[in-house]
Structures are given as structure tokens and as C-alpha cells.
Amino acid sequence: MNSSSLASVFVASLSSLALFGCGSSVSDGTGGGGGEGGGEGGGPDVCESYEDPPQLGAPQRSVTVRFVNDSAADVFLGAVEPGCGVYIPYALERAGVSVKPSLDICEFSCGQMMDGQCACPAACAMPQITRIVPGGSFEALWGGMDYEPASLPPLCQAEGCGGACYLPALAQGAYTVLGTAHPELGECIPNDTCDCQPDASGSCTFSTTMGVAGTPIEASATYDFGSGAEVVELRFE
To answer: CA nearest 23: which of 79, 84, 80, 103?
Structure first.
């Protein structure tokens, strides 16, 4: 497992990564918690279904997502137009619905939003690109949760936070795991890092402001979380 590359991409602590200004305005998130939301006539609290599950934050079983380059040329994992936050090189679908494997630095669970926790950090992680040479591989971790987009009713919204949020859930059942690589790199500007030297796994990761380019190369696999399998492979051909 390429532990050094993995750590540089997915470590949550931003202090270990180079930082740069995000450029967008930031909500101060000073509003109070969500409304009480009791239904008329003693009905159930409409906001209760948006509360975070008690398991959120507890250790879950992780799954390794392994990217394998079966092609005859280098492939690159990264964003076409880099922005704030850590790039997650794979996506998930559950029962045909797109869900996120984790939240970005300016995305929040519905429970957090109801509690008024919606302030984006003033700086964010430097974008990164992973290079995988022919025959090489790169590994990332999926932390055993998924996050489905949702919208809080006005009654449940904290002041200044809005309604767009995500409902977290423990992973269960079958998922489609999707990965996208690109065959080229974008324009490298002076004084930027534009390449790296692969390690024994055949991959490496570097921080840069440029993006990836070229025709996307897609890979997908079906994974059943209940199977207990520790690895799911995405192979680029």
C-alpha cells in the first residue's frame, strides 16, 4: 500500500498540507441551532429525521479503493479545474443514487447545519494530482460512510446556514464505485510543481495549482459492503 501518497491526499488535518486562499466569501456560522419543528397537534418533530446518527464519528470498517493502470501510458488522478479542498478520486452510487464517500471542507451534515456549524475555513488544502505509471497502482481509503444530498426545511435551518446539506449513513449493501483518470496534465505555470517520481507502487502524488486534461478514462466496479471484502479495484485500460 502506498502509505505516503495515501496520507498526503486523505489526511484530514489541513495543517499538514500547503494552504492557499479560497477566494470565496465565508459564512460566519454564528446563527443558533435549528428550530424546534414540532408538528401541529402534537405531531412528530419534522427536524428529527435530519439529525446525525449516533454512530457518526465512531470508527467504521474502512475499504481500500485501489486504482490500477493497465494502459500503456501514464494516467493522472485529479481535478480538471482545481479548487478548495481535498480531491477524492472516486465516487459512489447506491441504488442508482449518487452519494459522497466523505464531505469536503465546506460541506456539512444536516445535523451540523441545524446546530449552526456552517462556517467554511479561511484557507484550504493545496490541490493535488496523483500520477500512476503503466502497471502501477494507487490506493485510497473509503471510511465506511456515505453522504446523500438533502435540503433542510426552513423550519430546521439555523440562522445564516441555509438548507443544502448531507445525510450521513453507515455504508451497507451494494455500491457502484467509479473512478476517473486523465491522460494528460494541464499547463504548468512558472514556480509550480508539475511532476513527481513514482515509488515502488508505481504512483506518486504532488501538490500543484494545475489541473488534469485530455479525454477522461472511466473505470467502475461493484462492491457489496456486506461481503467484508477489504479491497475494491478500479482498472484503467
So the answer is: 84
